[in-house]
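Below is a filled-in request sheet from our internal design queue. Each sheet records the structural input a requester submitted and the sequence that came back. We keep these sheets so that new team members can see what a complete request looks like end to end.

REQUESTER: design group, bay 2
PRIORITY: normal
MODE: inverse folding
CHAIN LENGTH: 154
BACKBONE (tokenized):
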């Protein structure tokens, strides 16, 4: 089964926490919102270091480098069967000026027509409640685990 790795970027302002999520690009995701957003992440190749892949994907999907103290979170299994590994990172990033690499896909499916799309077409900060609604349902566990950890130390 496939494995992905990514970064859950978060920030604290006053007593509120916000989470940075990305929206996948392309025609399939165009009109999807709730449950469609994700942490910046990507597929891990066999033998590849998980955190290194997460950092590479963050850079590819935002144009920015993720640096700081990474906190490993428990992996989750998405409905598709894919296992996602994540690290939380506290930091701030402006969403203006972010950019994503592009990928080629066949669209419509089984049409033999190849189009180039941005891997990510939106970047946004969400409150905890909003993020849990927007993110892929399995990935909401990352936010919940991080919030428990932060509550223990605050």
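RETURNED SEQUENCE:
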């Amino acid at each position: 089964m496939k494995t992905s790795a990514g970064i859950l970027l978060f920030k604290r302002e006053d007593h509120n926490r916000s989470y940075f999520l990305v929206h996948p690009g392309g025609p399939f995701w165009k009109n999807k919102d709730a449950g469609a957003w994700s942490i910046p992440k990507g597929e891990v190749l066999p033998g590849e270091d998980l955190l290194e892949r997460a950092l590479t994907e963050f850079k590819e999907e935002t144009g920015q480098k993720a640096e700081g103290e990474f906190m490993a979170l428990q992996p989750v299994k998405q409905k598709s069967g894919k296992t996602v590994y994540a690290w939380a990172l506290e930091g701030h990033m402006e969403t203006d000026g972010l950019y994503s690499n592009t990928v080629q896909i066949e669209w419509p499916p089984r049409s033999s027509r190849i189009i180039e799309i941005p891997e990510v077409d939106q970047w946004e900060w969400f409150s905890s409640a909003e993020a849990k609604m927007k993110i892929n349902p399995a990935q909401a566990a990352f936010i919940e685990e991080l919030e428990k950890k932060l509550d223990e130390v605050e």
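SHEET NOTES:
- The helical segments are 50-62, 128-134, 140-153.
- Residues 23 and 37 are 5 Å apart (CA to CA).
FILED BY: M.R.
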